[in-house]
Design goal:
heterodimer, A: alpha+beta, Alpha-Beta Plaits, two-stranded antiparallel sheet, 6 strands, B: mainly alpha, Fumarate Reductase Cytochrome B subunit, three-stranded antiparallel β-sheet, elongated
Chain lengths: 206, 331
């Protein structure tokens, strides 16, 4: 089985935010929830870099470790998913997540957290693949499901698929690492495989 | 014009020679400098070495999204999964062990001379209401709080993942809502008993004599002895700390950022667990640990012999005011 990963080549990212928009559109993500975002470091200064970031689907995921109700699980493809039936919206995964991936709709009392939502690697949730229950409904401001399941259709995550500069790569970790390394060798520079050391304990810069 | 022709040849040779000279050494400098886009660019590895968090600018209104990477989430995970559990297990099981040991060695503290007929009011109805409101909230908060830290290992095998998630959801609601009566109780406790809980010289004697718990003598004490004053300040300061950090957690990111939220959870967890351990001792000494103590907060009246034994200075004042009812104290 492939071990699915994301890799953002920041030397190619042009901060167009199309990945963010495509993600929101694909999964019909409600207002205020951002499964993916683009952050610009040293904005306006020489050498600024933009990085598209979402859940990195960590090896030994910290969110899963701290969850008080064990709502997380890792698929055979190495994708970290969770069950909204089990989630109690305590927010602990956000404190442990190195990438700020967990999102909470403000449906609880005092504007507090509803059930957590995060990037699914376009792989849905624990419900049966490609069912309406898995996609979920948007009634009453609730966000019951997980959005579309492109992986079950044999497709890669929409954010990486439509990235115009192919900055954002998704797929088997070994393959995308090789693509990145070849790019770095050819052009002779790199600002790093952002998040890989933290998420996968891997350093693929060379 | 042979001269001019030879001159032209000479000049041409000279120029060629010069051109050749330049071509050898600074030829590279004449080409445009190679563009190196990473000469000034940020690199993740260097940023992570310098910073705890990598932050930047984003286009989303939510400022939390501007934190790109915070690897210290790992430190928080270690604290939450390992350190906090050890603190809780040692504090609570250690306290339970001490209580059992103490009960086996010392037994229940009896009223010297047995109960008499004379009684006096120790806590009025309002004081008892505030105490029990705080206590009842505390018990639910403690159980639902322990559930967050220890529940998934202890309860999931018993009731299954779905049952445990359902129970935890209700426990979270209870934890959120009962924080209000608890906080109100802590504030009222602070205000209504502060007058009797400031340190006095008799407290030092009381502590020096082991409070009569360890030894057989009963040192004089006012309405509250040094041990009770300690409980009072633990409730006021510890309760205040869990209330403040609890509301920070309940209203996430209103007042602080991710580092502040992690710190709030750490303070909330440690203070909460130590608080639970100390309250176990408080519950023990107020019930089976001491004869006559529960009546003080139960019905509000205590036996005169009990008061003389544990709060002699307070009894003297109350007796002078004629607040002792029933048979005259056996002198």
């Amino acid at each position: 089985m492939a071990r699915m990963k994301f890799l953002c080549d920041a030397d190619r990212c042009i901060e167009c935010n199309a990945c963010v928009t495509a993600c929101k559109n694909e999964h019909d993500v409600p207002w205020g929830i951002n499964r993916r975002r683009v952050v610009t470091i040293n904005d306006g200064k020489p050498g600024e870099r933009s990085v598209s970031m979402a859940c990195m689907h960590c090896t030994d995921a910290p969110c899963a470790a701290v969850c008080p109700v064990n709502c997380f699980y890792t698929t055979a493809d190495g994708v970290v998913l969770h069950s909204k039936d089990l989630c109690i919206g305590c927010g602990y995964c956000f404190y442990a997540c190195p990438f700020g991936a967990p999102q909470y709709p403000r449906v609880g009392n005092f504007g507090s957290r509803g059930k957590m939502d995060k990037c699914t690697y376009c792989a849905g949730g624990p419900e049966a693949d490609l069912t309406p229950a898995e996609y979920g409904s948007r009634d009453n401001g609730q966000f019951t499901g997980y959005g579309s399941n492109r992986l079950a259709e044999g497709k890669l995550p929409i954010c990486a698929e439509m990235c115009s500069t192919k900055s954002l790569l998704a797929g088997d970790g070994e393959i995308i690492a090789k693509i990145f390394q070849e790019r770095v060798v050819r052009r002779g520079y790199s600002s790093g495989a952002w998040g890989w050391q933290t998420a996968y304990r891997e350093n693929i810069e060379s | 014009m042979p001269t001019s022709a030879s001159l032209r040849v000479f000049i041409a040779a000279l120029l060629l020679g010069l051109a050749a000279l330049f071509a050898v050494s600074p030829g590279k400098a004449q080409q445009p400098t190679q563009v190196n886009p990473t000469a000034q660019s940020v690199k993740e590895k260097e940023l992570l070495k310098e910073l705890q968090r990598i932050q930047g600018r984003g286009t989303l209104p939510d400022t939390r999204t501007r934190v790109l990477e915070q690897p210290e989430g790992r430190a928080w995970r270690q604290f939450h999964q390992v350190t906090l559990r050890w603190i809780g297990a040692v504090a609570i099981l250690g306290m339970l062990g001490l209580i059992v040991l103490f009960y086996l060695i010392r037994g229940s503290v009896r009223i010297e001379g047995g109960p008499s007929q004379a009684r006096l009011v120790r806590f009025n109805a309002f004081e008892r209401f505030v105490h029990w409101m705080t206590a009842a909230s505390f018990v639910v908060l403690a159980i639902s709080g322990l559930n967050i830290t220890f529940g998934k290992e202890l309860l999931t095998p018993l009731i299954g993942p779905a049952g445990f998630a359902e129970w935890s959801q209700w426990a979270k609601y209870a934890h959120n809502y009962l924080s209000f009566p608890f906080t109100l109780g802590v504030v009222l406790i602070f205000l209504m008993w502060i007058a009797w809980n400031l340190p006095t010289p008799s407290d030092f004697k009381w502590v020096a004599q082991g409070g009569g718990i360890v030894g057989s003598k009963h040192p004089p004490a006012g309405r509250f002895n040094a041990g009770q004053k300690a409980i009072y300040w633990i409730v006021v300061l510890g309760g205040g700390a869990v209330a403040v950090t609890g509301y920070l957690l309940m209203l996430p990111f209103y007042a602080t950022d991710i580092a502040g939220m992690q710190l709030a959870q750490m303070v909330h967890g440690v203070v909460g667990l130590v608080f639970i351990a100390i309250m176990l001792a408080h519950i023990y000494i107020g019930t089976i640990g001491m004869q006559g103590a529960f009546q003080a907060m139960g019905g509000g009246e205590v036996d005169v012999n009990w008061a003389r034994q544990h709060h002699s200075l307070w009894l003297e004042k109350q007796a002078k005011k004629g607040r002792v009812r029933g048979a005259a104290p056996a002198e």
